[in-house]
Amino acid sequence: MNTEEMYQMMKQKLERVVPDVELRIKAEIAVEINKLKKEKNAVILGHNYMEPALYYSIPDFVGDSLELSRKAAETDKDIIVFCGVKFMAETAKILNPTKTVLIPSSKAGCSLAASITAEDVRALKRKFPGVPVVTYVNTYADVKAESDICCTSGNAVAVVESLKSDTIIFLPDEYLAGNVARETGKHIVFPSKGVGGLQFDTTLDYQMIGWNGRCEVHEKFTVQDIKNVREQFPDVVILAHPECSPEVVAASDFSASTTAMIRYVKETKAPHYLILTECSMGDNIAAANPDKEMLRLCSVRCPHMNTITMEDTLEALKQIRYVVEVPEEIRVRAYQAVQRMISIG
Ligand code: 13P
Ligand code: SF4
After folding, report:
1. Can you tell me which atom of ligand 1 is nearest the CA of 218?
2. Residue 155 is part of which domain span?
3. Whose CA is nearest to atom 3 of ligand 1?
């Protein structure tokens, strides 16, 4: 595709959400990226949170964490360029270790992944011996290596239900854990930092043990926000990612992974939609559904996803940077946990 064709293709999708002058610049970069992608036998995976111009031009596949893990595991290309955050690129390396995995920015972290260390998991296992550990994929490889099974927002309930255990440890997202507990009818306890390390009120009846990690984007949405929007737009349909608080999820109409939210808007017909998740995804949905009215309640972009730009994706392919590595001893143990999750579906 030449630059003019790329520009026309992007314009058709994005003229209502991206200024024309920017589209022209991005179309040029996209053509360069696609040329290099072919020359270097690379595949580009793009998370649903990528900014619209990137999302609609260069990825071979877009999707949520679970879908992109599957694509990473299946690819026969030499290079995987992961337009997402570091834990996602690490998961690609864990699943397909002979490939070169690149992430366009070295700063694409995640507040959930930063909330827990491998030593924290080991301490929990010492405190609750024999209790299976479920870890959200929004964690680094060494934390996954300490876990029995991983989950994503797309399969967390199925993963928990697949474990035939009276009690499970579910890490590290406090809100996702609370939402899973609510959906599966389990009671959950969370740690408080006391004298002598982690304290849990184990006098309570509980079936899940959680952690106090939070997504810095989703924790910002409140029930009051929802009330305000419903007052102004009584016919609005509200979708909330399960990293929002259980109260916010309960006050919404639908909650699921990023791809499931995209599909929901596509397949339903409501007068207004409000999507409680990362800002760019709202733009991507608006671009794909010009006949539907999307309301905005978006003051924050994920600062980590925001570091992934088309300019840096081009540099990643030119310079073969930043290469994602996972030490083999950690990778093989993390692989067990991720693979178990993938086989659940
Ligand atoms: P999904 O797996 O639903 O795409 O979510 C990933 C994420 O980081 C949400 O903040
Ligand atoms: Fe992490 Fe939240 Fe950003 Fe997702 S939106 S990558 S959970 S900080």
Report:
1. 10
2. 113-214
3. 257
For residue 281, the one-letter residue type is M
pLDDT of residue 197: 66
The C-alpha atoms of residue 63 and residue 45 are separated, in whole angstroms, by: 8
- Residues 9 and 105 occupy one common structural domain: yes
> What's the gap in Å between 38 CA and the centre of ligand 2?
30
Cβ of residue 255 lying under 6 Å from some atom of ligand 1: no
Name the residue of 174, 243, 276, 279 to mutate for ligand 2: max ligand atoms within 8 A of Cβ.
Answer: 243
Same domain, 62 and 82: yes
**Residues 213-230: tens digit of each pLDDT:** 999 999 999 999 999 999
User: Which residue's CA lies nearest to atom 6 of ligand 2?
Assistant: 110
Q: DSSP 3-state assignment of 300?
A: coil
Read off the tokens for 121. 């998991």
User: For ligand 2, atom 7, which residue shows the shortest CA distance?
Assistant: 215
Atom number in ligand 1 closest to CA 47? 4
- Letter for the amino acid at 111? S
The average confidence (pLDDT) of the chain is 95
Q: Which residue has the tokens 């143990």?
A: 333
Most distant CA atoms of the chain, gap in Å: 67
129: Cα separation from own chain's centroid: 30
Give the C-alpha separation, 205 to 195, whole Å. Answer: 23
Query: pLDDT of 140-164, one tens digit each?
Result: 999 999 999 999 998 999 999 999 8
Position 196 scores a pLDDT of 61
Q: Who has greater pLDDT, 192 or 170?
A: 170
Residues 120 and 205 in one domain: yes
On the CB side of 343, how many CA atoms lie within 13 Å of its CA? 8
